[in-house]
Design goal:
It comes from Schleiferilactobacillus shenzhenensis LY-73. It is found in: Cell membrane. InterPro entries: BP-dependent_transpt_permease (IPR050366), MetI-like (IPR000515), MetI-like_sf (IPR035906), OppC_N (IPR025966). It is a multi-pass membrane protein. Belongs to the binding-protein-dependent transport system permease family. The chain is mainly α and 311 residues long. It has a single domain, classed as MetI-like fold, CATH 1.10.3720.10. It is built from 15 helices and no strands. The N terminus is likely disordered.
Length: 311
């Protein structure tokens, strides 16, 4: 009994020189998210794969000669992999498939991040204003959101591509953003509604803080983990939309390399069977990127939920 008492006293003295127990502060929200995410081995593997593909596409595109994916070379038409140094062979126009894959992935990733950032900006502004002010402002913004949600997005995109004389990457980013921000706005609205009646918001209103300051400097930081999750999933969705439009022939121009254009070779049964190197690498790359990004997004969502549970 005496030994146990002595051990307990040593434990207390080891924790505090004055004999008082030390109460450690709870970890911050971002620290909880980081800890939960890094403890998920599958998420870390997916994150490494995602970053490898993104960095390889972005950095590798600077070392690919432009002539490899733009110039037509009849001598290399449907050249097999390994012919004249062609790692993945050539397509029907004699363009290097590997060069087109690297640059096309860079373009698709750039479009994906561009759309994701713009959608998050619109969603944050609409969601904050709608959830914070409520009343007639909420009604107007939500009715506008509902109107955009019922629009036939694919039909509008095809019409825009048909009537725009100089279709470019920026037009595609603008078009996808204009028809894809509604779900994000509703997501932020729901999060802001749960924060608007919290004590810290009521205290800020009582102290005379402006609505702008409360929304962007107090409410927004408290839902910032939602941004991390949603922008990741929106990026994956945007890459898929761009690839699908290009595959159907309504995306990037034929002169601009794209993953969708490479995959579109599989729409021809002859190409699909006889020239698999023209479409298979791009298909595998898109599947791997989509799976890894979605897994990272879901892992971040689980980490954010853990942060919420811990307060």
């Amino acid at each position: 009994m005496a030994d146990k008492k002595k051990t307990d006293q040593q434990t207390v003295q080891a924790t505090d020189a004055k004999g008082n127990p030390i109460i450690s502060a709870p970890p911050s929200g971002w620290r909880v998210i980081f800890r939960e995410f890094t403890h998920d081995k599958g998420a870390m593997v997916a994150f490494v794969i995602m970053m490898f593909i993104i960095l390889a596409a972005v950095i590798g595109s600077f070392f690919v000669p432009q002539s490899r994916y733009t110039d037509v070379n009849i001598m290399w038409q449907w050249a097999r992999p390994g012919t004249d140094g062609l790692i993945l062979g050539a397509d029907e126009s004699g363009r290097d498939v590997f060069a087109s894959l690297i640059v096309g992935m860079r373009n698709s990733i750039g479009i994906g991040w561009g759309v994701a950032i713009l959608i998050e900006l619109i969603g944050i502004i609409v969601g904050l204003c709608s959830g914070y002010f409520g009343g007639w402002i909420d009604n107007i913004l939500m009715r506008i959101t509902d109107f955009f949600m019922i629009l036939p997005a694919l039909m509008i995109q095809i019409v825009v591509i048909t009537i725009v004389p100089k279709f470019s990457i920026w037009v595609l980013i603008t078009m996808i953003t204009a028809l894809g921000w509604m779900s994000t706005a509703r997501l932020y609205r729901a999060a802001v509604l749960s924060q608007a009646k919290r004590d810290y918001v009521l205290a800020s209103k009582t102290s005379g803080s402006s609505s702008f300051k409360i929304m962007f400097f107090e409410v927004l930081p408290n839902i910032s983990s939602l941004l991390l999750v949603d922008i990741t999933l929106t990026f994956a969705t945007s890459v898929g939309v761009e690839t699908g439009l290009t595959f159907l022939g309504y995306g990037l121009p034929d002169t601009t390399p794209s993953i969708g254009r490479l995959i579109s070779y599989a729409s021809d049964p002859v190409n699909m069977q006889n020239y698999p190197w023209s479409w298979l690498p791009a298909t595998l790359m898109l599947i791997i990127l989509s799976l890894s990004v979605n897994y990272v997004g879901k892992a971040l969502q689980r980490a954010a939920d853990a942060r919420q549970r811990l307060g």
